[in-house]
Amino acid sequence: MTRPLARPGKRRGPGGKLPGMTHSPDADAHSGITPLEFRQTLGRFASGVTIITAQDGEQRRGMTASAFVSVSLTPPLVLVSVDRRAHMHGLLAEPEVTHFGVNVLGANQRHLSDHFAGRPGPEESVPWFMHESVPLLGGTIAQLVCRKEQVIAAGDHTLYMGFVEYSRYTDDDPLLYFRGQYHELG
Question: What range(s) does the Flavin reductase like domain occupy (predicted)?
Answer without folding.
Answer: 42-184
